[in-house]
Amino acid sequence: MKIRIKHILRCYQSGMSIRSISSSLLISRNTLKRYIRIYEDMGIELERLLKMDEQHLHELFGTETDNEPSGSAEYKYLQERISEYIKRLKARGTTRRSLHEEYLRDRPQGYSYCSFCLYLRREKEVKVPVGRIDHIAGDQMYVDFAGDKLYIADRNTGDKVPVEVFAAILPCSQITYYEAVPSQKKEYLIQACKNAFHYFGGVPNRLSRNLVGIRI
Predict the structure, then answer these.
(1) Tens digit of pLDDT for each residue in 86-141?
(2) What PANTHER family does this protein map onto (predicted)?
(3) Domain match, 124 and 148 both
């Protein structure tokens, strides 16, 4: 029997607790928490989800089982290619947006960008171990140099001057600071960190230089 996702969403939006929904619909609390997390991450209005057909809704939430229909032709098409999409996302310059545009060239009536991204994320959650880190406000600031070199124009000559992009982030709030510097030398790193402190309005307990995944 398929889990009644629409019932879950209606109950959750009405203010019912996880315990109450679990008791009423006979669904485990862990399962409920997973569906609610997916729903909140989607950023899609409830009214729009409730208008979807059951098949699409269950595919979106990943509730298909071996005993249930394998899904629509569109779903099968994406599932056959999704592992390749995940691998290609690791290449510099490849984004979810560019992959979705490529997908739509082959399947003009295919999934929306939002649904496409949800399927990608679900695939990564299944195959890639993910750990959660709880950050404390003011505890640390992550710093690193991000992406490829950029260029600025010399005001006098018009020549293109290569620069490195310094990035700093407060992991608890996700507030981010960027600055173009001449190189990655220590003196420029130190000055950029000082500028970031002024921008954030304070100094953290420690710095960590390992800012993974920054792209600009």
Answers:
(1) 888 888 888 888 999 999 998 888 888 877 887 787 676 555 444 456 677 878 89
(2) TRANSPOSASE RV3428C-RELATED (PTHR35004:SF8)
(3) no
